[in-house]
Input
Amino acid sequence: MARKRVRLAAVFALVALIVFLVSISSSMLARPAPASTPATPPYTVTIRHNIAYGPLPKENLDLCTPQHARGPLPGVVFFHGGAWQFGDKATFDSYCLYLASRGLVAATVNYRLAPAALWPAQLVDAQLAVRYLRAHAPALDLAPAHLCAFGESAGGHLAVFLGALATTHPGDEATLYANQSPQVSCVADEFGPVDLTAPMPMLTHLNTFTTLFGGATLASDPAVYRDASPLFDISAHTAPMLIIQGTRDGTVPPQQSLALAAALRRAGVSALYVSYNGDHALIGLSKAQKDALLARIGNWLLSEA
Output
């Protein structure tokens, strides 16, 4: 009987996870460019797919570059969401094209996912992608000191790390392009969790963190939860951040983003906090509201990059 209850609990948890992912898929997959995109964009965009930034199969990116733009150009690197377990760089295809058409070198990044790859593989890959782009900046016509990060949910978590850490996190590929900085110059964070030691009932219920940490709970290994929390790495040297957060987010509570904004301001770092009346992944917003928000993010990145 006890084994049957355990099996049923596992089934219910799996069903809950599937329902959760389906509920946000329309918002987090195939992110459209804002409707305000010009009918004739300033630049025609060249796209290169599946460029290897590391030696492992998942370590690849797509690159969008503006043709005939006078460089070196600022850049932005995108990180998809999906609870560190799901998702693909294709989430940001349209936005990659949109920002490249406005004069940025834009890259959408795949990274290793749990449970096949446990923390800190996700951060190791994110930092490696930044170092790769800097190492190849002359060939890409990229201004290496002007490279921003944009991420949503789990990708927002990684983007915040990229703005906070000035050094490479220890990991299996930390020696690659080791002469390049892993820190970006600005961050746009959409509802990314930043303190994994704080209560997040939905993610805990879905076993998101135990999957990421190979079964470890906060009680059994508090050090790994703290290591995976970029909130504790905020300093006066952290990059400026734009923080987007839903007031009714039941997945990543608003307290996470509010704590990030407060930490940035205490450190004397520029923090622009933008809230919307909706749930996680922009759920509850109309298309016009999403377009306006995404256009605002794009304009902020263009101004900060």
Observations:
- Residues 2-304 form a domain with the Rossmann fold fold (CATH 3.40.50.1820).
- The longest helix spans residues 2-28.
- The CA atoms of residues 104 and 141 lie 10 Å apart.
